[in-house]
Design goal:
Length: 143
Amino acid sequence: MLHVSCWWTQNDPHLLSSGRKKAFGRCVISGPRVDLRKVLSERAVEASAAAWKNVPPCALRQATRCTAPVARARQIAMYFAHIVFAANLTRAGGIFGRDRTTARHACSQMEDLRDDPRVDRAFDAMELALKSWVGAFSDEASI
């Protein structure tokens, strides 16, 4: 099971000496065989969707539906996880503690929203930004 903690620092000697944990900036990613690009893409869709709807990113992972803007941001994040980063629907929903049918519904809702040209342009820009940001960020991490 993958666990991401974001309160440790990169130079913590206790973490760096452990074979199962990798220090990455201010986040510590532990677990078997961490796919850094996958972790980054999940966090990127969460942060960008939350910023777009002006809600806290942690609200997207809450068990309850919360407010309408939070629910919409969660749907946007599931859609981008599925479309941009090719996460299957089970994984796209699982990122936020939801099942595949919820992710399927979110993707359906977002495809309907794309009928509006303004939303479609915004989604295209967000897709491009997510791909380039995660690509550049993971390339730096491998150096």
